[in-house]
Design a protein that fits this description.
The complex is a heterodimer. Chain A is α/β, with parallel strands linked by helices. Chain A has 19 helices and 20 strands. Chain A folds into 2 domains: 233 residues, Rossmann fold; 270 residues, Rossmann fold (3-Layer(aba) Sandwich), CATH 3.40.50.300. Chain B has a two-stranded antiparallel sheet with strand order 1-2. In chain B, 72% of the residues lie in helices and 2% in strands. Chain B is an all-alpha fold. Chain B has 16 helices and 2 strands. Classes of the chains: A alpha/beta, B mainly alpha. At the A-B interface, α11, α12 and α13 of A face α10 and α11 of B.
């Protein structure tokens, strides 16, 4: 890190109709630096990035690269100025080869022969130590490799500024570490990296500097090592963390478990091995384990989301047969799926229609919920959950991630479930909303609803769950409650009898047990 | 009042704006070309009834089969994200079944007509279920799945008719294809209204609309919310089958004969077009049946206008294509987005003007 200023943004202002998205924001990126851009949803991170990449035009301000002023009016301008972006969703073509993806659509590549660019691709892949071959079909590579290919493409385009927008949200811990290694390599080569993420832990793993935005204004720029994590969070949400810690105390009050609501023995689906599981009335439990340990697959089997292949299920002591989601719903079970976009929202339908959907399905084909009734339901839950939407008829796809999640929560709350399964309800949403959802979970449990809460942030689960089921390699390897509910114990159980050999594995375990808050 | 008017244009119409503007332009164009184009007179038909006649009547009457098929096609499109290209062939089969029952005895009584219609309905629903099974259960793309019936449908109709083009004459059937004595409005038009009302009632008394849209937009999420997507898709094809039976029966009743080669020939493409002009996304999802109905009338108005301009029937298709290119391009997301930007600029400008005025 030689500290030379590579990119400066000064007094950036951007106004949307009715919203001041950025007000007098400064941002400085130095050569060979990984700079985390932090803020809650709506803080202005995306707007700033989009101004830099030419998607939006700023209303006021100045951008310089290596000391000279640049004006960026299109993504092409950004590319020519040496700014490259790798987005959260892979924007390459899965059905083309790695090399084709690296050179497609580039002005300088139109007349290069296939052999030539395959050679060049291999060269750069090996230089960056990316374990992929140029002739491989991209879609067959793991998501992490795809992301790295996107980065390799950017590097090959001689980028000086690399923007990584939520690059780790769909990677597992091992892949995250591969990505971080690549980031550090690029840093050593003098590339400036802007790193946008929701995972605080990762910020502390790789970044040198942190810039925090809140409500479109600059909060400040800090050296990572000088800013404790707790302070970072409070700067992001703009309030003290007392609230966060007070949650835990509430849930610490040990209560005698009520009657068993749901019990399964030897339950299995096409995606799981047979397992036993039960949950009491008013209990909050959690499934934890590394990615691929089978935690999501297990709850999917409970809900009948995957094809159930065996097992005996009783609900309130009565035998129950759950093979499809509708069976589970009729028994009072709700399921908020892990992948909000794919399995949750009906993007083009309105907030109102999304909220009433599950209740409507349960009511049956011939008992439609009337317009006025559905409007009343929607208004009620928009108010209760403080869903930020222009109106109840706004298409849900246009809401922010956190508000979409609230709409899906509303959908299930409206069915008045006895048992609610929440798979990663807080992924990719801002800290404030996370807190609201955690509070809601505890409140529901108090009212007697059984809840299964899954999160890749162990801290969050420790705050909300009174019992944690730990999984490894599709087996349940432990159950923690009471005194055992702490990070050290969770990490030990996840690690189990495995003799930890590779530093990668150790790192992966640490990062999950440490909570990627 | 003013506010509600503005709302209609900003949100209420939305998807229907283009088809409605298209039909208005066609009407205005015709009025300029020939002010008497839309004049309606009362004439006496062959059976001695006083009936309405004129270009307007022939447009509305002639589009009946198309409008009915477009309603069913809208549902299939929304649920399955694809189209049924076998509706013309299936209508030929349904029509043949209708005539088969009509001609099964010596006389044609009212009861027999009802029986024949029910038979046509069952046959068309079965073929609809066949298409629907291929699409919903076997996950074959709708266009490929229905290509089967598109290819062989008219042959099946040929077998039902024994290779002939059976004719029949009955005042009851004439009344279905023409006019009911004492009512000056063509019966097919009344049937369209009836089918439209039935659709409206189905949407009111069932959750079909919400479920179909959910399945069409996000099948995976729909399934996890307990929706039986297979059933919804199958149902859409069966409903389209009913529409096919009604359209086929009207077509046969108009002519008093069944010609399996020509009955509702090429109507599948016009049907799909009507759905598209109606602003419905052919990739599935949100839909408006009303849009498709207007789309059907746009197509028919266009056809009749061209005939009225003495364009030869072989040339009509080429001219139709030109207008359709225009409609589809104007309705395309790119043009819509550009237009939306223009409108918001215009509105902002107007807002400023108002403020200035107040000062």
């Amino acid at each position: 890190m030689d500290g030379k200023e590579l990119l400066t943004m000064r007094h950036i202002k951007k106004e949307f109709p009715g919203v001041l998205a950025l007000n007098n924001v400064d941002f400085t990126l130095r050569k060979g630096e990984i700079h985390a851009l932090m803020g809650e949803n709506g803080a202005g991170k995306s707007t700033l990035i989009k101004i830099l990449t030419g998607v939006y035009q700023m209303d006021d301000g100045e951008v310089t690269i290596e000391g000279s002023k640049v004006s960026i009016h299109s993504p092409q301008d950004a590319q020519n100025s040496g700014i490259s972006t790798v987005y959260q969703e892979i924007t390459l073509c899965p059905n083309l080869t790695v090399a084709e993806n690296m050179y497609i659509g580039r002005e300088d590549s139109a007349w290069i022969r296939r052999k030539e660019y395959e050679r060049r691709a291999d060269e750069i892949l090996s230089r960056l130590q990316i374990p992929a071959r140029s002739t491989q079909q991209l879609g067959r590579c793991s998501l992490a490799i795809q992301q790295m290919v996107a980065i390799a493409r950017a590097v090959d385009m001689k980028c000086k500024v690399l923007i990584l927008d939520e690059p780790t949200s769909s990677l597992d811990d091992k892949e995250v570490n591969m990505l971080f290694k690549l980031m550090r390599d690029l840093k050593a080569q003098g590339v400036g990296i802007i790193f946008v993420t929701h995972f605080l832990e990762q910020v502390y793993q790789v970044s040198d500097r942190i810039t925090v935005l809140r409500n479109g204004e600059l909060v400040g720029e800090y050296l990572t090592e000088e800013l404790p994590q707790v302070q970072l969070v409070s700067k992001m949400i703009g309030k003290d963390l007392d609230e966060l810690s007070s949650l835990k105390e509430n849930s610490d009050t040990e209560e005698e478990p009520g009657e068993v609501f749901y019990e399964a023995s030897a339950l299995s689906s096409t995606q799981t091995l047979p397992f036993n599981f039960k949950i009491h009335k008013g209990e909050v439990n959690g499934f934890t384990g590394l990615l691929g340990s089978g935690r999501s697959e297990s709850v999917r089997a409970v809900f009948g989301a995957d094809k159930v292949t065996g097992g005996i299920v009783t609900i309130k002591g009565q035998p129950a047969k759950i093979t499809r989601p509708i069976d589970a719903m009729r028994h009072g079970i709700g399921y908020l799926a892990e992948d909000r976009k794919r399995d949750g929202i009906i993007a083009e339908l309105s907030v109102r229609e999304n909220i009433i959907l599950a209740l409507q399905v349960m009511n049956g084909f011939f008992k439609p919920i009337s317009r006025s009734e559905s409007e009343a339901f929607a208004d009620e839950y928009i108010k209760v959950l403080q869903i930020k939407t222009a109106s109840r008829e706004t298409p849900v796809g246009s809401l922010s991630g956190g508000n979409q999640q609230k709409v899906i929560l509303a959908r299930w709350l409206l069915t008045h479930p006895d048992y609610l399964i929440l798979d990663e309800p807080t992924r990719g949403i801002d800290v404030g909303t996370k807190l609201e959802i955690q509070k809601l979970v505890l409140k529901l449990a108090e009212e007697g609803v059984s809840i299964t809460f899954i999160s890749s942030e162990v801290e969050e689960m420790l705050r909300t769950c009174s019992r944690l089921i730990v999984m490894r390699d599709r087996h349940i390897v432990g159950e923690l409650k009471g005194q055992d509910l702490n990070q050290a114990q969770v990490m030990k159980t996840i690690a189990g009898e495995i003799k930890v050999k590779s530093p990668d594995q150790l790192q992966a375990m640490k990062s999950i047990a440490g909570g990627k808050a | 009042m003013k506010k509600s008017f503005k709302n209609i244009f900003s949100n209420g119409l939305g998807q229907l704006t283009i088809p409605i503007i298209a039909i208005i332009i066609l009407v205005v164009f015709n009025l300029i070309r020939d002010p008497s184009f839309f004049s309606i007179e009362i004439t006496q038909n062959n059976e001695g009834n006083n009936v309405l006649s004129g270009n307007l009547i022939s447009i509305i009457n002639g589009a009946s089969e198309l409008a009915i098929l477009a309603m069913g096609m809208t549902l299939v499109t929304a649920a399955c994200g694809g189209q049924d290209i076998s509706v013309g062939a299936a209508a030929a089969i349904a029509g043949s079944g209708f005539v088969k029952i009509l001609k099964s005895g010596d006389t044609i009584s009212g009861g027999k007509v009802i029986l024949a219609f029910l038979f046509a309905c069952i046959v068309a629903m079965l073929f609809g279920a066949f298409n629907g099974t291929l699409v919903a259960v076997f996950k074959i793309q709708p266009m490929i799945a229905t290509l089967i019936l598109y290819t062989c449908g008219r042959s099946i109709a040929y077998w039902i008719n024994g290779g002939a083009t059976p004719t029949f004459s009955s005042s009851i059937v004439n009344a279905i294809g023409g006019f009911i004595p004492g009512i000056p409005i063509p019966t097919p038009v009344l049937i369209v209204i009836a089918v439209g009302i039935i659709f409206k009632l189905v949407f009111h008394f069932t959750s079909l609309e919400l479920l179909t849209q959910s399945v069409g937009i996000n099948g995976s999420a729909a399934r996890l919310n307990g929706i039986n997507a297979t059933f919804i898709k199958l149902l859409s094809f069966i409903i389209l089958g009913l529409c096919v039976a009604v359209a086929g029966s009207i077509g046969v009743s108009r002519l008093g004969l069944i010609n399996h080669e020509t009955l509702l020939l090429d109507i599948e493409m016009d049907t799909i077009l009507a759905v598209a002009i109606g602003g419905n996304n052919l990739g599935g999802g949100k839909f408006k049946v009303g849009g498709s109905i207007i789309g059907a009338y746009v197509i028919q108005t266009l056809t009749i206008t061209l005939y009225a301009m003495k364009v030869s029937s072989t040339d009509v298709k080429a001219y139709k294509a030109i207008v359709i290119i225009l409609l589809v391009v104007i309705g395309s997301p790119v043009v819509k987005a550009k237009f939306g930007k223009l409108m918001s600029k215009f509105r902002a400008g107007k807002g400023n003007a108002c403020v200035k005025g107040a000062e």
